[in-house]
Amino acid sequence: MIDVIVAGGGPTGMMLAAELRLHGVHVVVAEKQAAPVRHTRSLGLHVRSIEILDQRGLLERFLAAGKQHPVGGFAGIRKPVPALDTAHGYLLGIPQSITDRLLAEHAEELGAEVRLGAELVALSQDADAVTAGLADGTELRARYLVGCDGGRSTVRKLAGIGFPGEPASMEWLLGEFAVGVPEEALAAAAAEVSGPLLRFGPSPDAPGNWRFVPRAASLAAGGEAPTEQEFRERLRELAGTDFGVHSPRWLARFGDATRQAERYRVGRVFLAGDAAHVHPPMGGQGLNLGVQDAFNLGWKLAGAVAGWAPPGLLDSYEVERHPVGADVLVNSRAQAMLLRPEPGPEAMRRLLSELMDFEEVTRFLVGKVTAIDIRYDFGSGDPLVGRRLRDLPLAGGHLYGLMRAGRGLLLDRGGSLSVGGWADRVDRVVDAGLSWPGVLVRPDGHVAWLGSSQEELDGGLAHWFGAAQASS
Fold this sequence. Notes:
The protein is α+β, with helices and mostly antiparallel strands. The chain has helices at about 10-20, 45-55, 60-65, 95-110, 155-160, 185-195, 230-240, 285-305, 315-340, 345-355, 360-370, 455-465; strands at about 1-5, 25-30, 45, 65-70, 90-95, 115, 120-125, 130-135, 140-145, 165, 170-180, 200, 210-215, 245-255, 260, 265, 270, 275-280, 395, 395-400, 410, 425-430, 440, 445-450. The radius of gyration is 23 Å and the shape is globular. Strands 1, 2, 6, 7, 8, 9, 16 and 17 form an 8-stranded mixed beta sheet that branches. The model has no long low-confidence stretch (mean pLDDT about 90). Helix 1 (about 10-20) runs parallel beside helix 8 (about 285-305). The chain is built from 12 helices and 24 strands. About 30% of the residues lie in helices and about 20% in strands. A hairpin with a 7-residue loop joins strand 12 and strand 13.
């Protein structure tokens, strides 16, 4: 029997598969597409996702393939960004096609089994396992299944999970073309007309092509891809010229629909990424949010497979990530409204721009988009508990470099604390330069416990990592 089936081989699914493989979990990724998708929707990785890559030893690969930019603003309003609580205070510009490839390579290097052209069409579960039926008649049986299969998730529908929210009220066309005018003229035009109704620039992964994102004149009834003629007409309406676009690499349409799954878990079936939430693309948070979902779920699901997960650990995935998803829906929807051309949104945009002259306002908004302000509620009054810990210099290396195996980590200032019977799941580092007596860090980098009492530490270890291993 398979341990975990991951339905969907995008960035969320591949990140999850890799996290599971770190712990030796037998995982099969079932991806319905027979070849990589050419569409590049996401163009960058935010601070928290960059930190995650660093925690797993992947960052150098991504830095080599991307370009660092200053952290962006909010709803297109750019202000000087105050110093952020991170060692990676930048936006990494990188096309989604490259992110997809690098994460897929990482998962396969760790031993994930990836099946392309494997479309899930049926799903059932009992007390012991989940059975997934594929379009070719094959049946797979696994202990758990995670739907990472996008906004129109088959897993979500078959699991009977509601997806309430608001349908799209506006849409954008997205495409990449060869152009019939000099690139110098295009660059000048982009600087002049780029705004809420039209954005364009060089293709991120096809030299010589240009990427155009005009707001559609109206909603499409069936959500089908736009035609080349529709693109030309819309460009002429917004820019006065169609720039001689021709030979499209691909065309797509996306809207500002805002929906969130009622639950992220039903029995042995989970949802992550766009299968759990869809929202306007403003702020570029979608791919990042999905990768962060996977990072939260992976070690917990691995603990359940290994048999040490304490009661409630799997349920903590929804408890922690559902509010995060809801907050992204709110801020992305607010950004979408602020980018509308009507007088009301324009007035709100001017007011927000003035408010962002205050550093704390800008830091607050940027913290939401970059996901570094997330604090899970662990019932502690200490503001650090529940937050992710930034990378720190430690004896023997840096914090993130010591977390690459996906295990828990105890930071011990005085050398008097012990992980005891949890040493098979939690590492320990003694460093006299720490600011705290003891810090227990979960595999996803969030602080689970802070203090100096061994008895309290044992309670925290049991809460997050199950029963201690009996001493021999």
